[in-house]
Amino acid sequence: MVSSVTHDVGMRFLRVLALIVAVSVGLTGCAYNDDLPGREAGPVSESGVELPPTSGAFDYQLGEPYEVDGSLDAVALDSSQTPPEGVYGICYVNGFQTQPGESAEWLSKRGDLLLRDASGAPVVDPDWPDEYILDPSTSEQREGILAVLEPFIRGCAAAGFDAVEIDNLDTFTRFDGAAEVRGASIDESGALALAARYVEIAHHAGLAIGQKNAAELADRGREELGFDFAVAEECGAFDECAIYTAAYGPQVLQIEYTDNLPGGAEAVCSDPQRAPLTVIRDRDLVAAGAPGHFRQQC
Hints:
- This protein is an alpha/beta fold.
- 29% of the residues lie in helices and 17% in strands.
- The strands form two sheets. The protein has a nine-stranded mixed sheet. A two-stranded antiparallel ribbon has the order 4-5.
- α1 (9-24) crosses α3.
């Protein structure tokens, strides 16, 4: 997982406002991009939603958005942003952990939806200590989580996105009662049931939905849960790209990072197993012109 832009109060207000406007004009599960200038509608999945392109230029901009030289065919943005016209927009939503700017609110108002360790303390992600882990183990907890996150997904559709990617699908595999997480455990069936509900909500809103990482779940993600495509971070670095393409065919968007390129950028782009749309980015996903920015399209 990579860091995303913090959702401040103003952005949350704008997203809620966008959702209200969408509902008021009767937007339902329809395609939102058929009439966008500069782009023809892409292939349609079995669920009737438009899939990402499998050729052209792709960028991963979960930090501050920016313009690239030339044109983009697909771009992933945080849900607080608005996709550019004529580009297939993928909306980032953290579906199994809290957003950094919202963790305190979850703890104070929805503490029963957070994973707890054996002592009763809420569990944080060791790699992202400003994110609490959500616990979808029971149906009541899943409904509580969805009450918060379903409007975000529908807000993505209202904002003009074509798809949504749900981050941290594999959280349950990292919190399985092991000693290092002090007895904290997430029920696998509950986590996958929540994922299936995200798929249902996205499709009803007219959005394709991508499985984010978790190569070990690729087959189940496609066949059992109903994800339409995959967003794979560092599948080249970890030799996992073929796993994703075996499940999703060419519908895989690949991101590699400059601080973990065992064979260098040239090796990534020349790898016959890489996804058709592959981009190499700096780890912090900073905007063009900012110190540390790097972007290379394969």
